[in-house]
Design brief:
Number of strands: 0
Strand content: under 5%
Helix content: 40-55%
Number of helices: 11
Structural class: mainly alpha
Largest sheet: none
Radius of gyration: 19 Å
Length: 281
């Protein structure tokens, strides 16, 4: 018999963690290649606001796949085997479904901020943990979202995903819930690193000309500016980004729009600093 629990839908030999990982890979590499196709065909040029990466899609892909296959997949399967995640009710109620997504978003924000700001951007750990490798990209090639050292990938991608999932009781074993969470997370990372900002054309669009207030709200919801500023400056927006509640960056005053280029908050106080080698990527 399998060491994995069954949710009554999947066969005993097919772990939910593996199904979720497969769905995430389909979403990640499907969306990632869609952005790459736009780059190659010069599509959506009005939304392409950054184009600074020198590594090609083919050069980025091997390390990305290695992280996903040899770190993410084993971690997800280990979490299920230990009963920490991908376990519980096979069908979540609508209220539990929505509540879990909100709680995971909050948990992801907190865990990523701690791992990213406190650990990976500590000057003494930046190079030993290899976070400088990720910052060698300019966040203008979508799949560079997972182009990082193994330690960086574990701290910045795996733990902010699995720790909140475990803390809410495993997220149940609802296939739709897990595949949706994993796929949304994949899209967010890819978009933030793609160099595209769908908010860029809004001011000159019909919506921007006729309803500028509404356009401003929409722009706030769909912009990729936060993580772009993190790659540019290195000392802002450690967990704030597309789809993130930005709780920690707001609380600790490191949100990109609260810190000027000179490294001071809008209130005039010095912002938290990082390794200067991470700025102006």
């Amino acid at each position: 018999m399998s060491a994995f629990a069954t949710n009554g839908v999947l066969p005993w030999y097919l772990p939910l963690s593996f199904v979720t990982w497969t769905a995430q890979m389909i979403a990640y590499h499907g969306i990632g290649f869609a952005f790459e196709w736009c780059d190659r065909r010069k599509l959506l040029r009005s939304c392409k606001v950054r184009d600074v990466d020198r590594l090609s899609y083919a050069q980025l892909l091997p390390r990305v796949l290695a992280n996903q296959v040899f770190i993410l997949l084993p971690a997800m399967m280990a979490a299920e085997w230990a009963g920490l995640a991908f376990v519980g009710e096979p069908h979540l109620s609508p209220l539990r479904f929505i509540t879990n997504i909100i709680l995971i978003g909050i948990g992801h924000d907190i865990v990523q901020y701690i791992a990213h700001r406190v650990v990976l951007h500590r000057p003494s750990l930046m190079k030993p943990l290899g976070h400088s490798l990720h910052h060698s990209t300019g966040a203008s090639k979508s799949i560079s979202a997972c182009f990082m050292s193994g330690a960086d990938f574990l701290l910045e991608i795996v733990l902010p995903y699995l720790v909140p999932l475990a803390l809410i009781g495993g997220g149940g074993s609802d296939i739709l819930f897990h595949c949706l969470v994993a796929s949304l997370g994949a899209f967010g990372g890819l978009y933030e690193h793609s160099g595209y900002d769908f908010a860029a054309p809004l001011p000159k669009s019909w919506l921007g000309r006729t309803l500028p207030g509404v356009a401003a709200v929409v722009a706030t919801l769909i912009t990729s500016k936060a993580h772009a500023e993190h790659h540019r400056r290195g000392s802002v927006s450690f967990s704030d980004g597309f789809g993130s509640p930005g709780i920690c960056d707001t609380w600790f005053g490191t949100r990109w729009d609260k810190v000027g280029d000179e490294g001071r908050t809008l209130a005039g106080k010095p912002a938290l600093r990082s390794d200067p080698s991470t700025t102006a990527s």
